[in-house]
Write a sequence for this structure.
């Protein structure tokens, strides 16, 4: 890599200019994304949330994905479109959602094309070398719990996907900002008023969306894999006391598979990887209504010896 | 297929199926379509038995699953299970 430096080394104007012209080659371990956009909110979000990430320059820089979010004029409102190599996989969104669109689009790139790993829709965090996988559908409180755990000292590997290495069974980090929606935004801001957050995408299909910056510790160890130790299926229930039950292994496997983006691509090996993961890790159904109770339970987790 | 002709239940794509079992249940992976199915422990044992032996005599299978002689209810339950297996593409009837 020639001349790597971080986005923080660029002024706001320089970053905007790069993004609007040749684009920015941004290292998001384990990938390099080539990002182009002339929309100010994209530059704003990248500058806040990826300040510590390497910005690569040089004629021979390789990017895993070439993506862009560019303006499009709708009949009644200003829109934006996401492109991967000129291909538009999604319908346009409102212009104010451009940064969130970039985040969602980059997730889609990885889950659609990065089949070196078995990918599972889940948050992944690690402490003391042991990783917890939190698979859950949207609306389950996964990202809120993930952000709270990260701000409580857990290392973030990902808010959106587990990247399970088929050769080692270890989890590859892909630490990116944590996506919060609606009430969760204030919940996390109240717990961590100084946490860096990106631009607000208002009135999206998911409501209001804000991204929270990954902690420095998460970013600093983004090349260090982790060993899966627990699988926890979270579900937020307003006002509920903490309820944790051991999930039967067979049900855990079925649920993990249903949350996997690409186990079918890996065939029998993919199924056996998931089964092995379930075999090795205690699995829990985790119903919570109070983040402090939830964090205390995670703090007391002991890995199997 | 005419039900009166002698036939045997068989697993037609033996190599396509991977089974993982625990005391709480069995999970089957079908490589032909990538589908995953959750079975009870008994259903998993029945599927393994059919894969191993084929099934001509349901009584023999039921006796392998329990110490006592099968009841009419057991036989009826097995018929339902066989229909479900057939619908899932796990087994098919082959004339003998």
């Amino acid at each position: 890599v020639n001349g790597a430096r971080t986005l923080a080394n660029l002024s706001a104007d320089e970053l905007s200019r790069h993004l609007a012209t040749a684009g920015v080659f941004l290292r998001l371990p384990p990938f390099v994304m080539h990002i182009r956009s002339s929309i100010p909110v994209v530059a704003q979000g990248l500058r806040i949330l990826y300040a510590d990430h390497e910005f690569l320059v040089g004629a021979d820089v390789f990017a895993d994905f070439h993506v862009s979010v560019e303006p499009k004029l709708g009949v009644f409102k200003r829109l934006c479109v996401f492109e991967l190599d000129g291909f538009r996989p999604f319908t346009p969104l409102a212009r104010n959602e451009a940064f969130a669109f970039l985040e969602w689009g980059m997730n889609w790139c990885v889950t659609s094309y990065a089949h070196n790993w078995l990918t599972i829709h889940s948050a992944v965090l690690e402490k003391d070398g042991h990783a917890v996988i939190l698979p859950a559908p949207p609306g389950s409180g996964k990202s809120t719990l993930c952000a709270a755990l990260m701000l409580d000292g857990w290392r973030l590997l990902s808010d959106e996907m587990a990247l399970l290495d088929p050769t080692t069974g270890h989890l590859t980090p892909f630490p990116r900002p944590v996506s919060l929606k609606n009430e969760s935004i204030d919940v996390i801001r109240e717990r961590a008023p100084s946490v860096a957050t990106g631009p607000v995408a208002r009135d999206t299909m998911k409501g209001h969306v804000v991204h929270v910056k990954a902690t420095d510790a998460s970013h600093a160890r983004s090349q260090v894999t982790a060993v899966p130790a627990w699988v926890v299926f979270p579900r937020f229930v307003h006002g509920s006391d903490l309820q944790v039950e051991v999930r039967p292994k067979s049900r855990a496997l079925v649920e993990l598979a249903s949350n996997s983006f690409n186990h079918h691509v890996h065939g029998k090996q993919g199924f056996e990887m998931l089964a092995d993961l379930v075999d090795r890790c205690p699995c829990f159904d985790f119903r919570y209504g109070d983040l402090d109770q939830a964090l205390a339970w995670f703090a007391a987790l002991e890995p199997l010896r | 297929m005419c039900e009166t002709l002698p036939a045997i239940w068989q697993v037609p794509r033996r190599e396509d199926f991977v089974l993982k079992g625990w005391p709480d249940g069995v999970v089957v992976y079908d490589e032909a379509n990538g589908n995953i199915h959750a079975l009870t422990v008994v259903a998993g044992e029945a599927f393994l038995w059919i894969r191993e032996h084929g099934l001509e005599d349901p009584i023999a299978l039921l006796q392998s699953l329990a110490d006592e002689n099968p009841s009419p209810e057991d036989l009826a339950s097995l018929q339902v299970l066989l229909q479900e297996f057939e619908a899932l593409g796990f087994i098919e009837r082959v004339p003998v």
